[in-house]
Amino acid sequence: MDMTFAPDPLALLVIGALGLIVVGAAGLAFGRHLFRLVLALGLAEAGANLLLVIAGYRWDAVAPILTGSAPAAMVDPVPQALVLTAIVIGVGVQALAVALLVRVKLAYGTLDLAELKALVERDIRAAAGIGEPDSAQAPATLPGPAGLIGERP
Amino acid sequence: MHRIATLLFALGLGVLLLGLAAQLPLGATPMAIGNEILARAPGEIGAANIVTSVVLAYRGIDTLGELAILFAAATAAGLVLGHAGSRSRNGEAGFILRTGSDLLFPLLLTVGFYIVLHGHLTPGGGFQGGVVLAAAFFASFLARPSHRPGHGVISLIEGLAGAAFIGIGLAALAGGGAFLQPLLDRGMLGELVSAGSLPLLYLAVGLKVGAELAGLLAQLAE
Amino acid sequence: MTPLDTLYLASAATLAAMLVLGDWRRAGVLATLMYGVQLALLFTMQRTGSTSFDLSALGFELSWRFDALSWFFAVVTLGTAFFASWYGAGEWLRAYTGRRRLFQSALAANVFAMLLLLGSGDLLTLFVGWEATSWAGFLLMALAGGLARDAALRYLVYAMAGAMALLGALVVLFQAGGSFSYEAARATLAAMAPGPLWALIILFGLGFGAKLALLPLHLWQAAAYSETPAPGSVFLGGVVGRMGLFALALVLVGLIGIPHLQALAVPFTFLTAQDVVAWVAALTVVLPTYTALKQNDARYLLAWHGIGQGGYMLLGLIVGSALGSAGGLLHVINYAATQATLLMVVFGVRHRVGHTDLNRLGGLVARMPLSFLALLLGIISLAGLPPMSGFVSKWMVYSSLIQDGRPFLFLAAIVGTLGTILSVYKLIHNLFLGQLRAEHEQLNEAPLSMLIPMLATATLAFVTGVAPGLVLGWVADAQAAIGLPVIDYTLGGIASPRASLDMLWVVGVMFAGFGVGALLFYGAGGKTHRVHQLDNYAGGHFLDAGMRYHYSDNFYAGLMHLIGGWYRGSFHWLEGAIGSGLSLVAQGAGGWYRAINPAFYLLAASVALIAWVAL
Amino acid sequence: MNALVLPVVLPLLTAFLLQPAGRLSAALARWAGPAVLLVCAGLLVQIALLTGGEPVTAAIGGFAPPVGIVFYADALALLMAIAVPVSALLLWPRAEAGEAGVRQSALMLLLVGSGTGMALSGDLFNLYVFYELLTVASFGLASATGTGRAYVATVRYVLVSGFGSLIALAGIALLYAQTGSLNLAQLADLAPERLANPLGLAAFACLLIGFGVKAELFPVNNWVPDLYACAGKPISALLAGVVSKLAVLVLLRLTVLVFDSPEAREMLMVLGLAGLVTGELAAWRARDLPRLLAYSSIGQLGLLFVALSLPGPAGLAAALAVALHHLLVKPALFMLAERWHGSLDKLAGAGRASPLAAGLFTLFALSLVGVPPLPGFWAKLLVLLELARGAGPFDLTALALVLAVTVVEAHYLFRLVGILYSPGEFRDRHSPRALAVAGLGGAVLVAAMLTLPAVSDALAGLASQAADTAAYRTLTLGGGL
Fold first, then answer.
1. Which of B214, C363, D124, D215 has minimal CB crowding within 10 Å?
2. Does residue D53 sit at the A interface (CB-CB below 8 Å)?
3. What is the ipTM metric for this complex?
4. Where does the record place the NADH:quinone oxidoreductase/Mrp antiporter transmembrane domain (chain D) (predicted)?
5. What is the pTM of this model?
6. A104 inside domain
């Protein structure tokens, strides 16, 4: 790897962005509380947005706003516009996720994943009319041999 | 155990990502379209803030999509929470909070509209301004939960603002151009009334975002 | 309109008529007549072939035509359908409580699908016909519901596995040769390297072997055939499994060719592909036949035999000599007549008694003498004894094995025949001989509508046994069609210098011998008189109707004890192991989708993905 | 062809105005949606007739690509675009009274607008925006049944989608950092030079995961079974039917135009196979029809990804055949599951209670398994032939797996058919609309079978047009307005 960390602020920013993504992803993966998962998602999203902004950055350039003075080199305006969009999208999704969590909490009284899993599984089973417990998700294999081979004692 | 697994995974992912990122051409992006936009935007659009040119002109339909996403989120949240039936919130906030919010309300409103209307000149714009507008309403709502802004008003504003955005786009289409083609005179670069229809679009965006967020927050707060 | 077009039209019309009129009281008669018409049409067609329509789809040409091989199998198909339908046209249909329209349509659909299969003019058409036959068979097997449904589902798994193996072989062959036509396939296969060719042979073998019920793909057949309503069972047992033989003859013999198979060595051994196929066939003869021996239900016993007899056919065919392949092919038609006869008798008994449990029957000869006669002729033929047709075809297969210098295969075939003789004795003994049960005292002979077809097929088996030349002409043409050496035949049998057989002589001598014996007996003053079953005693006690002296439970107990451990359940074990393994994997897959915290797997997956990219 | 933007914008406009309109008149709010969808479908058909299937572009805002966003409509894009409003019309949610109904209608309209946009757009980030809009709209629709389990299923869906979209965003960032462009045509131009490296592949992997969420791609598809089991069946039908195909269309454009490398194809194939095997095996063990269908949908889409990984117009034709077949069959099956939602074992007797539905189910099952001469067979045959053409170890493994899994599929589908036709107590009958939708699917299926030569020609035309990257680039970047 040809990485030159120390004097490079941009590299630090990249590490920061990736760090946010990693922390968010780890939170998503191992979180046990739904609300924390939503927060982790927001964290990771921030990282992705940061990455996007960095993608348009240039050395020795200014913000893409015309100020009347002689136009200097400006950074790429497109990623900034994209990030604006992406942030808003993120906000919308987060808000909706929180709204859903409110309903989940009202319905099951918990946001803990393990508890929810059991509750929902039971609920779905009851709704579908499948009475048996989990282990009876019997292997729906080929019909039993004895009767069908004709080998009746 | 659980924590170790978390740590290991995160470390592995991080190293892998870093390995990839090391190959990125940092700080020297190709700017295949960026340069062209930088060159063309001042003359073509007439907005001092080139990001605004991108947001509203070159990628205007993205912005429309974005508005629609906010709208969809608000609508979906309304659908999700609507089943609950509003629980009455009793108790108003204290005097200081009420007065503070009363004082803040016009201030926030002004700032919000300022940011919205100067979006084509300075950093800021419809989204940022819209959030400030929403904050204005939300602050007063927090202070006086009983006096929530009417749901009908919010939905009217968000509907009409969104429709206005599309309407401006369609007006260009009807005039024989393309959808969202800039209309009106470009004016002088850097003046408030410049950049053609962009300020109008940003106004619509600002109102829409404000209404959307206000509605969302109000629904969640219920 | 070519003769084949007319035949297809007639067959489709039969299906349409059954779809519309299947519920009609006389639908069975109508169907029988229409199968008769089809049979007549077939006989007016030139044996060497006829073409029919072709169409193109997605750039593939699909065409249908008949050659002598198709014609030969079509005769068996339509003949079996005709007699089976006749069997079910009268009293059986009146007593049938299932869905008649569905049943009649399913039978007609089977016939139509099989004719389409037999007429396939290229490999794609072959697959289309193959699938049509499989699914029509599934419909026929499943429509009785209950146990039949389960059996049919099991059949479906095997049939689909076969069909998919076949499809895999076809697409590989297509990409190697650029076309689905037989000519291109022949050229491609001739030039193919041993490795891919082996793969193709195995795939084709799996594909066609599933229908022929070759080992180890045979587990489905007995139950699926036995649980089908009577005429359907007769039809299935008589001919449907033979479609696998047709396809194997077409591909292994017609496209790859026996010489090529002989030249293809199994790596690291002295065996060739031909040997492998022959041994699979031989094992298919032996093992299922001894499984048949254990059956306690007459239908299952016969169905298990069907599997073994398919082995004989393949064995003869794969030997590849004029004599052997003729024997294999001849056995198709002989066996169809034989099996149809036997099944008709058994279902006739079932019609009267209500079950076919060999442990709860016996002595029925007194009540159903004509059925007994038909069954007797049938089992003689099945066991391969003169003067019935089964003897001719089996003799040809045996002779060819000896001529070809394959003593071990010959031995296997003999062992199989031994099992056959034992088990058909069990059949006739437990059904018709011995003590008549008290509850069967009032039974009647099978109804005429069922009796006539069974006697007719028995007669056919006898006539073709006495004069095999009647059908050996068809066989010879079929051999020519797939490039095999052609048998030299006479009306009475084979006229080859190394092995000749004249059944006219054999039967003549046999009956003359019987005549001499009778003359001696009566000439010496022998007398016969009828004895009632109960006019008997055992251990000094007179017997009465309430006493059971006819032991049929646990027949051949000693033999079973001797051989039982050898093969018992190993195939079931294999099937079960595959099923359980799949089930385990499926459980894992289900667990993945049911985990409520999905992101963990996402993270693992993304780590893997990025690692893949980076490395 | 500036009118191309109308089928995207009109539904959005209507959605914005629906709630205010609902205060004026309930009937207006109720009928405006379907009416606008009809108009959109009509517009798209008219565009298709005008262009005669030749590709056209529309530069949004009049800014010539690659600077501006461009809509690109070839025959395939138009076909998918037409499929969106038509499916939405057929699967329009049952009218709920009051505000909830209006909101649902608005979300449906947003979904249609974004779906059409996804079919037409030729700009990566624009695709992402439409994709997100579609996702958010489907969140709302999926949770609309209002049961607790539906909420939980939707939360799962939100989390996986959120994860996917952030990954997609990262992918876009990677792509942009490498090329500085978002226009697909320009990306196609730049790809051989800039993207033929691990970073390019990483970007593809990220986009694959991101857009794969909707397309039920393997690692990001475990929201599917619960959601389809808990959401309203029309919504499940919509998501499994047309929405997943839109995501596939995006991935198709990406693989054809930008990431046309063996490594990318390999990745697609491996993920597709994983989905195929896990989906079908899980379906084998499923105990209720909606989840069975959901799992089988995952499997079918796995097959689709395997087909998508095959190079050349022939591979594309195979992928399109599978996609269109699934688009037709799966919604119809979900509509049948509307009443048959309980345990599989309790469905005994359903065949007697509603013979038409059972017959249709059998037809679809036969076609899914791939029984000739039904269209499903030809689709599968095309895939298999292309796999055999590749003849690498990957291809042959895939070939074997596809064939093996078909056996499993046949087993569970016909086990169910057997249950349907066995005697039993089940008496529920389908709503006329569900039957009509399923019947329509069946009718189209049979019609496609009867007109197979014409259909296959059309398919080959679609595929060769979609595979023609040179035409895409010249038309888009040549500045056609």
1. C363
2. no
3. 0.87
4. 121-389
5. 0.90
6. yes
